[in-house]
Design a protein that fits this description.
Elements: E1 5-12, E2 23-29, H1 38-52, E3 57-62, H2 73-79, E4 84-87, H3 111-120, H4 123-131, E5 136-144, E6 166-168, H5 171-179, E7 183-185, H6 192-198
Parallel strand pairs: 2-3, 2-4, 6-7
Antiparallel strand pairs: 1-4, 1-5
Length: about 210
């Protein structure tokens, strides 16, 4: 199953005219900084914002739980508890269902097509419209290519092998898997491997976790 993951910086709405005094922002991530691509990119963004503002806005990357848990980032940014967040729109389907169209769309567009829609097809405006009522401004900072598979405890040979499994999934992809008899759950990226380790031993094809 192809999935698009958009990595988005959620920036708290600021009053017109930035304050002249130096500001310190916490960038609360849903991904650990040790995670290749997603976590490392969050660290780079924090460093680059600090650099291009000449230090007027000093941004500190926070690992999940540094200020708030990973899956509380949306509410923390919207309420002003943290100044910015590093995440994916797909995590917030429970808050804004339409955000599922912005990440991990099964058999969705390629990264190049997705970026073309954002820049020239009204995608960015749609994104801003979805976030604005929650006091959040969203900026797409990266897009990774579609993912084609997952990690499973046992080999999957047919659709029937999926029935009754427990799978880590989110967004529209999770809804597709649920239609095929899978029980899905949302876990933050950093919680996937520990969950796999702690899962009890079970008969073949009775349990799996899928990573995005």
């Amino acid at each position: 199953m192809k999935k698009i993951l958009t990595t988005t910086a959620l920036v708290a709405t600021m009053a017109a005219g930035a304050a002249s005094a130096q500001q310190h922002w916490n960038l609360q991530s849903t991904y650990p900084g040790s995670l290749p691509q997603l976590g490392a990119l969050g660290i780079r963004i924090a460093e680059q914002i600090t650099a291009i503002t000449g230090g007027e806005i000093e941004v500190t990357f926070q690992n999940p739980g540094g200020v708030v848990p990973a899956l509380e980032v949306f509410d923390a940014v919207g309420s002003g508890a943290v100044e910015a967040g590093w995440s994916t729109p797909g995590y917030w389907a429970g808050r804004v269902p339409a955000l599922q169209l912005l990440a991990a769309v099964p058999f969705g567009p390629r990264a190049s097509e997705y970026l073309a829609w954002l820049k020239f097809g009204g995608g960015q405006e749609f994104l801003e419209e979805l976030y604005e009522p929650h006091n959040i401004h969203s900026v797409i900072c990266a897009v990774i290519a579609p993912e084609a598979s997952g990690w499973f405890r046992n080999e999957i040979h047919s659709v029937e092998d999926l029935r009754g499994l427990t799978m880590r999934f989110f967004g529209l992809g999770a809804k597709v898997m649920e239609r095929m008899g899978v029980s899905t759950q949302l876990l933050a990226g950093g919680d996937i491997f520990p969950a796999l380790e702690l899962a009890p031993s079970t008969p073949p094809n009775s349990r799996c976790r899928q990573s995005t």
